[in-house]
């Protein structure tokens, strides 16, 4: 079963315009969606086909010039309803924060201070550098919602770095 995020992204792309699974995969790649949502190319293909089988999309074989046939998918009324329900349900979910480095912080007292400071400093630098990289990408997005998403991510990385600075000071004091 696909994640809700994957379904929302696929159905949303098809609301914008009909497209093949290959085109959809390229759209997700161009929008940097994979940076924020786990959705592989095979998952796009599998889920587009599944959504078609479930009646949320329809596929039409199209032949353009010398190119091989491809299936172009369009969203159905049932798919638009599903999209609306998924959007509403997802927006109502409790907020969840899931940082991969939390086990490091949970066990930081088990390493010596020098190592602990170095680990926290590495986390701080990683988050600041990532915020800067994301900031550099923001101007390349034409869509307001894409820019807003990237701005939120950048601000989150900076907030984490700031929190880690305070945590290090609280844990070890000022050097």
TrEMBL record:
SUPFAM superfamilies: Winged helix' DNA-binding domain. PANTHER family: PADR-FAMILY TRANSCRIPTIONAL REGULATOR, TRANSCRIPTIONAL REGULATOR RV3488. InterPro entries: Metal_resp_DNA-bind_regulator, Tscrpt_reg_PadR_N, WH-like_DNA-bd_sf, WH_DNA-bd_sf. The lineage of its organism: Bacteria, Bacillati, Actinomycetota, Coriobacteriia, Eggerthellales. Residues 10-84 form the Transcription regulator PadR N-terminal domain. It comes from the Bacteria. Gene3D superfamilies: Winged helix-like DNA-binding domain superfamily/Winged helix DNA-binding domain. This is PadR family transcriptional regulator.
């Amino acid at each position: 079963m696909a994640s809700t995020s994957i379904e929302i992204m696929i159905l949303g792309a098809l609301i914008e315009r009909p497209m093949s699974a290959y085109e959809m995969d390229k759209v997700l790649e161009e929008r940097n969606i994979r940076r924020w949502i786990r959705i592989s190319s095979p998952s796009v293909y599998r889920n587009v086909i599944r959504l078609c089988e479930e009646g949320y999309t329809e596929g039409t074989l199209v032949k353009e010039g010398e190119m091989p046939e491809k299936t172009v998918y369009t969203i159905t009324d049932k798919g638009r309803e599903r999209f609306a329900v998924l959007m509403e349900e997802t927006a109502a979910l409790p907020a969840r924060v899931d940082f991969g480095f939390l086990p490091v912080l949970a066990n930081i007292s088990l390493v010596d201070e020098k190592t602990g400071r170095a680990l926290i400093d590495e986390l701080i630098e990683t988050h600041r550098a990532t915020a800067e990289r994301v900031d550099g990408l923001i101007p390349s997005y034409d869509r307001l919602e894409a820019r807003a998403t990237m701005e939120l991510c950048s601000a989150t990385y900076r907030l984490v770095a700031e929190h880690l600075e305070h945590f290090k000071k609280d844990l070890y004091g000022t050097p």
